[in-house]
Specification:
Structural class of chain A: mainly alpha
Number of domains of chain B: 2
CATH superfamily of the largest domain in chain B: Aminoglycoside phosphotransferase (APH), C-terminal lobe
Radius of gyration of chain B: 21 Å
Number of domains of chain A: 1
Number of helices of chain A: 4
Number of strands of chain B: 9
Number of strands of chain A: 0
Strand content of chain B: 15-25%
Oligomer: heterodimer
Structural class of chain B: alpha+beta
Order of helices and strands of chain A: HHHH
Helix content of chain A: 55-70%
Largest interface: A-B, 46 and 46 residues
Largest sheet of chain A: none
Strand order of the largest sheet of chain B: 1-2-3-5-4
CATH architecture of the largest domain in chain B: Alpha-Beta Complex
Helix content of chain B: 40-55%
Radius of gyration of chain A: 17 Å
Shape of chain B: globular
Distance between the termini of chain A: 20 Å
């Protein structure tokens, strides 16, 4: 899941911006609706996606901890060359992460991942 | 009459003869450093000539994307046209007495630039049948154009480490982005001939006629000297396929056709791995940019959530990155 911004930051951002005098353009309102839809999908799908990622990350890194800590560990391993960028297990993990993130952030994005 | 209208009215007799006037002056785009205007020169006798004015609005156009000054941009377009590239004719490069600042005037070409229409509108089917090959031919001619003086040379390793520095500075932890940097690092192309590179050659920056295809190559402000494969990789990025991932070139055509058109027009053959490298770097660049947009929003959310939503588009580029890694590993 992407945390920049978090679901909470998206909702707060819309609430703080939303002009109550009706001055927002149709375009800006559509962007705001999109932001809220992303936040809603994040709340609905994010926890299960994180749980799945943690399972895969434990297997990949041999470590344990939160998703954030395990992502950090995996990133260090890739950076240090302990795991190759095209390692099949890493590819499978990145693919699952990408599809989970896309389902939250941009479910209509047409892509090449099978 | 606005100041720009007055200046153009004074200039236009030089371009279209004594007694010529201007009409239809409209601003098309205006940014922090650059604006584009459409207008027509109406000669004393004969048809109106549709024109575009490109003009810098800051005294010195400094930009982190390293834009060459407008004079270099205009000279480059003129050199490309002289070398057979379909691009708008540059009719005047402004100097001090014109009073328009850093600016130039070029022909206004008609056609479609909306990527989605070019990729999917049934009316553009005839164009799509020939467009990839035409793009290849246009790129071959761009890459064979002698760069004018002052065009910057970009080194691929410097570009790559610049993006990695920006990424590190963001403090974000994304294994897929890390994998993309390491994947690229292992595949930096061996030094080959450096050529003029358009730098932003993609669906959206080309003018297309529904029947005849490519009408003009636009948006030259990122032109530089570099690896010619960069332009081919960039138009292959899935971000510019407008919902048509099966059509690798801009969502409208196939890479084989583009490469065939490229070689046919005199381009040196480019292998698939080199295109993959630049396509990956293109996706990664866009991914890094989304995080920069988010950072701007986080620093000042008052402008509304648009840049926050763009921050979430990192999911798109990560998907594209994994697709390239997976394809090249199989």
């Amino acid at each position: 899941m992407i945390t920049h911004p978090t679901a909470q930051a998206l909702v707060e951002g819309v609430a703080r911006w939303l002009p109550v005098d009706g001055s927002a353009s149709g375009f800006a309102l559509r962007v705001a609706r999109n932001a809220l839809e992303i936040a809603a999908r994040d709340m609905a799908l994010g926890p299960a996606a994180d749980a799945r990622a943690v399972e895969r990350l434990r297997a990949l890194t041999g470590g344990d901890g939160t998703r954030d800590a395990l992502d950090r560990r995996l990133t260090e391993m890739i950076r240090a060359g302990e795991i190759a960028p095209d390692d099949p297990a890493l590819i499978a993990h990145m693919k699952a992460c990408a599809l989970d993130s896309l389902a939250i952030d941009q479910p209509k994005y047409a892509h090449e991942l099978g | 009459m606005s100041e720009i209208a007055e200046r153009l009215a004074a200039l236009v007799p030089k371009l279209a003869g004594d007694g010529a006037e201007i009409n239809g002056l409209t601003r098309l785009t205006g940014g922090a450093s650059m604006e584009t205007w459409a207008f027509s020169a109406v000669p004393a006798a004969g048809d109106a000539i549709p024109l575009i004015l490109r003009r810098g609005t800051s005294p010195l156009a400094r930009h982190p994307g390293k834009k060459p000054p407008l004079r270099i941009e205009a000279e480059l377009i003129a050199a490309a046209v002289a070398n057979g590239v379909p691009a708008p004719n540059v009719v005047h490069i402004c100097s001090e007495p014109d009073g328009l600042g850093e600016a130039y005037i070029m022909a206004r070409v008609s056609g479609e630039t909306l990527g989605k229409r070019i990729a999917t509108d049934p009316a553009f089917a005839p164009a799509r049948a020939v467009l990839a090959r035409q793009c290849g031919a246009a790129l071959a001619r761009i890459h064979a154009t002698p760069p004018v003086a002052g065009v910057e040379t970009l080194d691929v390793r410097a570009t790559l480490s610049g993006y990695e520095e920006t990424w590190r500075a963001s403090g974000l932890v994304r294994p897929t982005i890390e994998a993309a940097f390491r994947w690229l690092e292992r595949r930096v192309p061996t030094a080959g001939a450096l050529t003029l590179v358009h730098g932003d050659f993609r669906n959206g920056n080309i003018m297309v006629d529904a029947q005849t295809g490519l009408a003009a190559v636009l948006d030259w402000e990122l032109a530089h000297v570099g690896d010619p494969a960069e332009d081919i990789g960039w138009i292959c990025c899935n971000s510019w396929r407008f919902g048509q991932p099966g059509k690798r070139v801009g969502g409208f055509g196939d890479l084989d056709d583009l490469l065939a058109g490229y070689v046919e027009a005199g381009g040196a053959p480019i292998d698939a791995a080199r295109v993959d490298f630049w396509q990956m770097l293109g996706s990664l660049k866009w991914g890094v940019m989304t995080t920069m947009m988010h950072a701007r929003w986080a620093a000042d959310p008052s402008a509304g959530p648009e840049r926050a939503v763009i921050g979430r588009r990192l999911s798109e580029t990560e998907t594209d990155i994994v697709a390239i890694i997976e394809r090249s590993a199989s």
